[in-house]
Every structure is written in structure tokens, then in C-alpha cells.
Automatic annotation (TrEMBL):
Phylogenetic placement of the source organism: Bacteria, Pseudomonadati, Pseudomonadota, Gammaproteobacteria, Lysobacterales
Keyword check for Isomerase: yes
Keywords from the UniProt entry: Carbohydrate metabolism, Cobalt, Isomerase, Manganese, Metal-binding, Zinc
Catalytic reaction(s) noted: D-ribulose 5-phosphate = D-xylulose 5-phosphate
GO annotation terms (biological process): pentose catabolic process; pentose-phosphate shunt
Keyword Metal-binding included in the entry's annotation: yes
GO molecular function, one term: metal ion binding
Name of protein: Ribulose-phosphate 3-epimerase
Cofactor descriptive note: Binds 1 divalent metal cation per subunit.
Source organism of this protein record: Luteimonas chenhongjianii
Amino acid sequence: MQSAVIAPSILSANFARLGEEVDNVLAAGADWVHFDVMDNHYVPNLTIGPLVCEALRKHGVTAPIDVHLMVEPVDRIVPDFAQAGASLISFHPEASRHVHRTIQLIKAEGCLAGLVLNPATPLEVLDYVLEDLDMVLLMSVNPGFGGQAFIPSTLDKLRQVRARIDAIGKPIRLEIDGGVKPENIGAIAAAGADTFVAGSAIFGKPDYRAVVDAMRSEIAR
Ligand code: DX5
Ligand code: ZN
């Protein structure tokens, strides 16, 4: 398994001072910036686009920006995010007519490619494409909003995806997104996740470093 990555979701940050929020959470020990893009079509919420990603780069953010596209159709926006400074781009198979083509597009644009599975999406979507992926993102809530409760059946799904990744022996990351907090991150890590998104658990608290440290020590247990 690869080293643990903590990727705070800026969905729960204060957007009125986003640059400062991102600086603070990275200074507190976070590894990546998780960037939730919602289109009021694929999901019933509307958030941020490539301009904001580019603004974070211009602000001086050098950490990987982990773009989670909840956008349909997805292909048209991929080059814009690559140019805006995205490091990884993940998308939902339901939002792409041709999943293999979208993966290749993301890579051709110079980014790492991730595929996102909703709580009810079967693992079969990984058939034939897992080897092409840099990351699998398992949603542990239904996409669209921060602050929801972790769906417990995701733990079993994590174990199954971990076994599939280990079986092919490639350094594919396994990311978990939704309802992750210090109280459950140990069990989530034990089930096989190595990349942890957390929004409300971090940005909802006054001391970001205390939360990030608590998460790391639970992962290491
Ligand atoms: C939900 C987003 C998540 C969300 C996580 O659609 O993909 O990244 O912001 O927020 P929390 O950690 O609050 O569940
Ligand atoms: Zn997300």
C-alpha cells in the first residue's frame, strides 16, 4: 500500500477567503487539495469551476489539486481543468458515454486519472479499465453535499477494491470520500483506503492541525 494522503475537501471551506483556507490546511499537514466540481445536473448542487482552480495556482498553491468532477457530460471540461492546474481528475462513469475514452483524455491532457464509484455503483465498472487508472475513488455518501454520514457498507466495498488493486500490483490509489472523520478513519484505513477526503471534519473545526494529526495517528494504528 502507498503512503497515506489526506485531501481536505474545500467544499466545506470558507469560499470568501479560499486562498487563505487552503494555505492554512496545507500548513496544518494536509497533502492534497480535494476540489469538488458540481454542475446542478449530474448532482443537485452547484460549486466551482476551472477559474477557481487556476486562481489557487496563481495564489501559489503547489500541492496536488485533486479534482472530483460531478459534471455531465464530463469530457468537454477536462482540458479546461488540465490547463487550470489540476493534478488528478476523477469522474463518474455515469457522466461519460465512453469511460475508456475519458480516461485516455485525462491522461493525454497530462493529468492522473481517477474513476469514482457511487455507493450503489457496482464494482464491474472497473472491469477492463482498472489497469488504466491512477486512482479509484469510492464515494461513502451520495455525491452532492458535504456533511453527510458515512455509509457503512462502503467498508466491504473498500476491501474488495483493495483486493483487486493488490491483485494487479500497480500503484493505483484508493480514495474514500464522504463522512470521513477521526472516529472512523482507522476502520476505513484498515479496509484498504490510502487516500482520505474530509471536508466538514476538517474545515468545520477551529484547529485544522489537530484534526489532521488525529487522522494520521488513527491511520497509523
Ligand atoms: C460530496 C463531495 C465530498 C464532500 C465531503 O459530493 O464529493 O468531497 O465534500 O464532505 P464531508 O467530508 O463533509 O462528507
Ligand atoms: Zn469529492
